[in-house]
Amino acid sequence: MFGSRRLPTIVLALLLCVIALPAEPTAAQEDGAPVSIGTYRVIESQALGETRRLLIHLPRGYDGSAISYPVVYHTYGDYMTYYADAYYTIETLGNEARTPQLILVGIDNIDRYRDLRPLQHNGEPAGIENYTRFLTDEVMPFVEKEYRTAGYRILVGPQAGAVFCLYTLQNTPELFDAFILNNPFVSAPNTALLLEQAKEFYTVRESLHKFFYVTFGGVDESAENIADIKQFAQLVGPAFDKGFELRLNDISGNDDFITPLYLKEGLRALFEKYYVPMDRHFTSLSEIKSFYDDLSAHYGYDVAPAEWVMTRSADALIEQGDRGNAVGILEHQTALYPNMVNGWWRLAGIAAEEGDTDKAIALYRKCVEINPSMSNFVGRRINALKENAR
User: Fold this and answer.
1) Quick one: average pLDDT of 152-172?
2) Same-domain check for residues 251 and 297
3) What is the mean pLDDT of residues 183-187?
4) Within this chain, do residues 254 and 297 fall inside the same structural domain, yes or no?
């Protein structure tokens, strides 16, 4: 998939610190300390001949887990309004287990019309091919080397980035699995090119397992722009039975000066099969594995069970008195999330209930190793266990 070009020189710029909020309370931060939502990584790009920054956010619990994560690539990563919204959306949905936890990679722009569109306003070629090489030869290999990625990529494209999304799908479809974008048909020469490509692309492919979510109807769009979307929806019809999924989000009546991306709605639609309602509890580890195996087959990557879903299911089983199945789930949970307290804490509680004081104490101490702020509370519990064992 990737070219044979040498990886670029990576300059690590510690300009921002990653926030990795644990599920448990932590000690108060130092007065006056800055709040950060990502870490800058800097690439000296050979493909572009420029210095480019990536703004990367790792999901809550990344350091506490042993799993790999899908990646969201955001084409407007230097626009803090877009990036902050993406950060909030991904954190919220991931923490509620409505979507998997996701790595966010924001890519800064220097000349978005040169890089993200195949044609300039006058119809002359722009620089999209160089930008594509930048992604395939430099950005993606770097991200996938430095971080635990799951091999599932989502491309996010507001404004000019929307053109890049559709062009990438129709010219290098192997690069991304899902796309969330604004209306890509707002630049006349690029619209003509994209629609002409679409007339053949969706008819000749044997399979096209892609998710494509498009928001349209913003205040800045003309009737012609919206007509182009409807024409596109007709052109992709032959791919619907080949795995292609098109979701159109009509926001006619929205009066925002800059059309929102609706990333939250797009991600929820993409991962609607992933979400486990709050009132659903799995009754065994085998049931959990079966559910996530089906998701893995659907999405095409190894989908790890959500830590929050396993915790809820174990709690329900403990309440019902089914400690055996609860332990099976919790032991799998601690294997996937070895540096998160939830699983260890419940295993300690079960050991205490069963009278295995030594095991309970060892497990409680494991919780303190992970989260030292719990030491006083856990110390009192350990002392109580020792007293009861006398």
Assistant:
1) 97
2) no
3) 95
4) no
Is residue 142, in this structure, part of any structural domain at all?
yes
C-alpha 247/C-alpha 270 separation (Å) is 9
| 380 inside domain | yes
Confidence of residue 357 (pLDDT cuts 50, 70, 90): very high
With 0-12 / 13-18 / 19 or more C-beta atoms within 10 angstroms meaning exposed / middle / buried, residue 323 is middle
Tell me the whole-structure pTM to 2 decimals: 0.89
Regarding whether 72 and 21 lie in a shared domain, the answer is yes
Query: Over pLDDT 90: what percentage of the chain?
Result: 82
Residues 119, 165, single domain; the answer is: yes
Same domain, residue pair 122 and 213: yes
196 pLDDT above the threshold of 60: yes
> 370 and 344 in one domain?
yes
Render pLDDT for 100-135 as a digit per residue (tens, 0 to 9): 999 999 999 889 999 999 999 898 999 999 999 999
Q: Same domain for 264 and 291?
A: no
Overall domain count for the chain: 2
Q: Which domain holds residue 60?
A: 9-270
